[in-house]
Amino acid sequence: MLTVALSRRASSDIALAKYEHYNVKALYLAKAGIVKMLTELTKDTNGYDSLNEDWNRNKDNHKELKIGDETVFYGSSDEDGRLNLNSPTLKKEQLVELGIVDAISHEIIDYKTRKGDKGFEFMEELFLIEGMTAEIYSSIKDLVTIYRGIESKVNINTASEKALLAVIGDNSLVQEILVYRKGSDDKEGTEDDVIFKNPSDLSMIEGLDSSLFTVTSNVFRIWAQSFFSEDKKISREIEAVINRSGKIYLWKEY
Prior knowledge:
Blueprint: H1 2-42, E1 63-67, E2 70-78, E3 83-84, H2 92-97, H3 102-115, H4 134-140, E4 144-145, E5 154-155, H5 161-168, H6 171-182, E6 213-214, E7 219-227, E8 235-243, E9 248-253
Parallel strand pairs: 3-4, 5-6
Antiparallel strand pairs: 1-2, 2-7, 7-8, 8-9
Helix pairs in contact: 5-6
C-alpha cells in the first residue's frame, strides 16, 4: 500500500513538473513573439504609419513565428491612433463624442486635474471615476490611451471613426477623411488605401486643423500568443504597450 501511495504521489509530482516546464516554455515563446514584432516595427522607417502596413495585425489575421515545432501568433495595433487621456488639451466634449455621458466626462476631467502631472497611471484607474461601469469602460478602452506622455496629436492614418470624431468634433470632416483613406475599393487596410504620408498632405482635407494630427506613430500595442505543441491546452499570451525604442509602458501575461 505504501509503495502504491508513493508511486501515485511521484506520478502526480512528475505530471505537475512537466506541466510547469511546458507552461514556462510557452511563456518564453510568447515573449519571442513580442520581440519579433518589435524588431519588425523598428525596421519600418518609411516616415508614415497606416492601416495597410504589415504590422497592423489582430488575432484574425495574425502573423506567425516558427520556432522548431512551435508556432507563435503575434501582431500589433497603433496606440497613437487613440485619444490620449493624459493630454493637457483633453476636453469634456471629446469624451462625450466617444459616447460617455456628460456627467461622467466631467468627472474624468476633474479626476485628471486633481492628479496633476501624474495623470492617469493605469487604465483601470477609470473605475475610480464616479459613475464608471464595466460597460462604459469596455466601450472606450480601445479608443483611448494613457501611454503617450502628454502628446495630444493622433495619427490620422490609423485613428478610428470615433477617435477622429472625438478629436475634430465635426462628422462631415471625419467622413471626408475616411473616404479619402479608403481609396477606390471603399475598404480600409487594403493596398489601394490613400495615405497621408507627410504633414503637408493634411491640406487635402479642406478645413482640417493639421495641428491636431500626425502621420507617424511611435507607440504600439503588441500581442503574442503561443500554443505548446505537446499539449494544446497549454497556452500563454502577452500584451504589451511599447515604443519603437523598446520602452515598455504596459506588460500583461495571461
